Amino acid sequence: MMSMMKSNAKYLGLGSVITGTFFLFNPNINILDILPDFIGYIFIITGISAVADINMHLSEARQRFLKLIYINLSRIPAFFIMMRIVSSAIDEQTTVLVLTFAYAVVELIYLPGAFSELFEGLTYLGSRYDSGSVFRLPKGRADARKSKPVSRLKYYTFFFMFAKLLLPCVPYLMYLRIDNPYGIIDPSSYALERYKNPLIIITAFIVLVLGVIWLYRFVRYFRNVLRDKPFIDKITEAYKNQVVSREGFIIKRKINSITIIFCIAFGLAPDLFVSDVNLLPDAASALFFFIGALMLVKYTASAKPVIPLSALYFLSSLATYSTSIYFIDNFAYEVLEKSEEARVAYRILTALTIVEAAILCVLLFFIARAFSDLAHRHTGYEGDNINHLSDSQSMSVAKLLSRRLYISFGYGVAAAIGSILYVILKARTYSVFIQNPYIEPTYAYYPEIELLWLYYLLLSLVWALYTIRVLRQISKETEQKYKYS
User: Strand 439-447 relative to strand 429-436: parallel, antiparallel, unpaired?
Assistant: First the structure.
């Protein structure tokens, strides 16, 4: 009996919701999240995706959690940018406060609504399929009928999320003190500086206590729902009848998930250089390419080469990134003419960059080929509708998408070449002799091409945004093809 309950719960994937909560209960330190929330949201989406297909509230929750994944992913480059901007000067510390508060506000736009829809979806299913476990928290005593309604858990969830996101702002509020219209920092703020670290510890401890309480209550509640065998059996049967029997529905949902994973991969692909350090390591993009390839290969055999190539790209990007960090920490592009050791390190960095770019080009070709094959299999017009289209409209949708995919591949090759040119051109500098009566005469070095990082970033963004647009078109055309199936 218990095994049947577990098998049905596993079939629906609901247990992943519990796994996801273990990434959400921890406190944040400014915008740094030690246990990344986006991983927790991925698990929650995985857990509710099946049931979301038969319930509009859970479907809305899935969309909100998906937006939160994108928001939380942006915390990674934002943190490194913040660390580069913030200096020892106290007036620069306001950057931490601004970013922490900004992320809190943006996430609070979606987070309460996401959990609200999650609870609304569960209560709707509980009402429809007569489940008492959905409405009450387990007490483990004979007077379970007196237990508090689950709405208390929902409101406590809201309270905890507000505390988790807003309390990290408190230690940095001291930097808002000013004493004149010119924005000069009040000297008393320097005296308050010594309270910042204790406040960080105190607020983190408060959030941690609230988080552990929330985690305990939520996990206990959700496990009680999963133990309700009649309820799990009924929603499993409803899912099989309403969704599994519709093959086209499953296909378009899976392809949508695949395109989302690849969109994340391409979204992480552009290089953002701050002080010559790439804040968006290509290894992150490679990891999502690998995950997406494992999913894509189930729908097209053309994706098989993408799996080893993604792994190879991951390793090469790690090697290139670590070498670049070593070079920046120990040398500078301006000293290449003076130091043999710097020239050796630079040659290794250039060689690794060329190898990584070559692997990326091959990888992008096979990604374009795989999605082209996917488009030919799962997009296009069906039935007699094609007879009512004009000549231009009757062009094969798959052929059009395939052409755009290979255009995207061309942009990707240009971006790969751009990464090589960035390393080569960055070493081209000119010197200016500076004489000043107050300092020793010296040479100052300047790059021959100003804002080189910005030109390369724009090139990468054009490639990434165009590719994301094409992938979303494939998802929409797949949905259109299987709209009534």
Answer: antiparallel
| 408: amino acid identity, one letter | S
Q: How confident is the model at residue 352 (pLDDT cuts 50, 70, 90)?
A: very high
> Is residue 266 a contact partner of residue 472, using CB atoms and an 8 Å limit?
no
The H or E element that residue 37 is part of is helix 37-52
CB 349 within 8 A of CB 392: no
Rounded Cα distance between 203 and 207, Å, is: 6
What whole-number distance in Å separates Cα of residue 458 and Cα of residue 470?
Answer: 18
Helix, strand, coil proportions of the chain in percent (round to 5)? 75, 5, 20
392 C-beta neighbours (distance < 10 Å), count: 6
pLDDT, tens digit (0-9, with 9 covering 90-100), for 294-346: 999 999 999 999 999 999 999 999 999 999 999 988 887 777 777 888 889 99
Q: Residue 382 has what DSSP assignment?
A: -
Query: Within 13 Å of residue 191, how many CA atoms lie on the same side as its CB?
Result: 4
pTM: 0.72
- Per-residue pLDDT tens for 139-155? 544 334 344 567 889 99
Q: Which of 106, 100, 110 is nearest to 203 (CA)?
A: 100
Q: Which amino acid is at 95?
A: T
